[in-house]
């Protein structure tokens, strides 16, 4: 269904990347847009979208693809690339994306009014927007909209983790990022927020990932005593070398080439369940009377994914949610996290 966008370009969202096959209200909706692609470059854009989507839909999201709808809309630009790609030149592109935001060369941001106008027309229920900029110059930004240049699909999952799972950066205390402690920290005036994966707490019970800590792991944990899979309390995170801790030696939130790690993976899985009910429909309808072929009990298996009935016949009034309910849910492979995930139920 082509629509005429307010900014004078024609775009449509018929180009689905992956679909859950279900309505947008029941799923997490990702909208891919592109900036600095010329009218003849739609194929390039769609190939870039496929690459970016593949970069996001790796572990752990690869086990949950049916909870996501992803759409791509091609909006051609009059000029190629992005503004200030060379440090100064402005370009006439569809979403006015530009490097050197706040004078930082790699800070690549776009005109949010233009983006939001397009979102409203194409996919009002979009939960996340990923903007791919047609440039080889490294750059990107996180936030409500994830922006990255087309050769930097590897930073998208990291940025998505900030937006989607509220994960904090775990870097700090390395040569590249803040080996020196900011003096504001020493003065006690620097704000350091707590996150699922970053804390100033050293008391076991106060650590956000306490449920992941083995009883014999020393706190704080010295890197020399740990392996790559150790979950502990490692100093250096959130741009600071000291006094702030992260769960593992390394992870995607510290180095984009690394996997997420268990604590951050759990945050992703919980973020999915915060947004999506895995139960799509229930039967029988509330207040209907059905014959239940069994004297047994209702039981729930696994992660509330299905409800079985067993035993002999009896009349059954399905008057309350949870009574006589057979729930159909999209299967997900979170079995590995059963031990850690808090019990949840959906009605
Ligand atoms: Zn980050």
Could you explain how this protein is built, in words?
The chain has 347 residues and is an alpha+beta fold. Among the domains are: 163 residues, Collagenase (Catalytic Domain) (3-Layer(aba) Sandwich); 50 residues, no CATH class. It contains 5 helices and 16 strands. Bound molecules: zinc ion (ZN).
List the helices and strands and how they pair.
Blueprint: E1 3-4, E2 10-11, E3 15-18, E4 28-35, H1 42-56, E5 68-72, H2 112-122, E6 128-133, E7 140-141, E8 145-149, H3 156-165, H4 183-186, E9 234-237, E10 240-246, H5 262-275, E11 279-283, E12 288-292, E13 299-301, E14 306-308, E15 314-318, E16 326-329
Parallel strand pairs: 4-5, 4-6, 6-8
Antiparallel strand pairs: 1-2, 3-5, 7-8, 9-10, 11-16, 12-15, 13-14
Short description:
The chain is of the alpha+beta class and 347 residues long. Helices cover 16% and strands 20% of the residues. The site of zinc ion has 3 residues, from helix 3.
Give short descriptive properties of this protein.
6-stranded mixed beta sheet; two-stranded antiparallel ribbon; alpha+beta; Collagenase (Catalytic Domain); 20% strand; 347 residues; binds zinc ion; globular
């Amino acid at each position: 269904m082509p629509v005429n966008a307010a900014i004078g370009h024609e775009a449509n969202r018929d180009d689905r990347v992956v679909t859950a096959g279900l309505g947008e209200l029941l799923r997490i909706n990702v909208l891919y847009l592109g900036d600095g692609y010329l009218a003849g470059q739609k194929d390039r854009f769609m190939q870039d979208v496929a690459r970016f989507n593949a970069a996001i839909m790796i572990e752990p999201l690869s086990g949950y693809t049916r909870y996501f709808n992803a759409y791509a809309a091609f909006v051609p630009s009059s000029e190629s690339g992005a503004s200030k790609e060379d440090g100064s030149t402005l370009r006439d592109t569809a979403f006015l994306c530009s490097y050197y935001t706040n004078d930082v060369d790699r800070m690549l941001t776009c005109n949010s009014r233009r983006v939001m106008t397009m979102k409203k027309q194409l996919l009002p229920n979009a939960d996340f927007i990923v903007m791919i900029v047609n440039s080889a110059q490294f750059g990107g930004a996180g936030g409500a909209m994830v922006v990255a240049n087309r050769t930097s699909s590897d930073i998208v999952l990291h940025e998505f983790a900030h937006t989607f799972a509220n994960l904090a950066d775990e870097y700090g205390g390395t040569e590249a990022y803040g080996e020196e402690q900011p003096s504001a920290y020493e003065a006690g005036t620097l704000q350091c927020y707590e996150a699922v994966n970053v804390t100033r707490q050293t008391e076991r019970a106060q650590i956000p990932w306490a449920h992941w800590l083995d009883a014999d792991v020393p706190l704080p944990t010295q890197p020399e005593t740990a392996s790559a899979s150790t979950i502990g309390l490692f100093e250096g995170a959130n741009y600071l070398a000291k006094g702030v801790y992260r769960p593992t030696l390394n992870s995607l939130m510290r180095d984009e080439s690394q996997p997420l790690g268990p604590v951050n993976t759990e945050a992703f899985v919980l973020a999915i369940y915060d947004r999506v009910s895995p139960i799509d429909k229930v039967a029988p309808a509330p207040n209907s009377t059905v014959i239940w072929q069994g004297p047994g009990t209702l039981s729930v298996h696994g992660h509330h994914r299905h409800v079985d009935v067993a035993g002999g016949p009896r009349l059954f009034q399905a008057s309350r949610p949870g009574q006589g309910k057979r729930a159909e849910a999209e299967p997900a492979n979170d079995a590995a996290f059963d031990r850690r995930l808090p019990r949840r139920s959906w009605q």
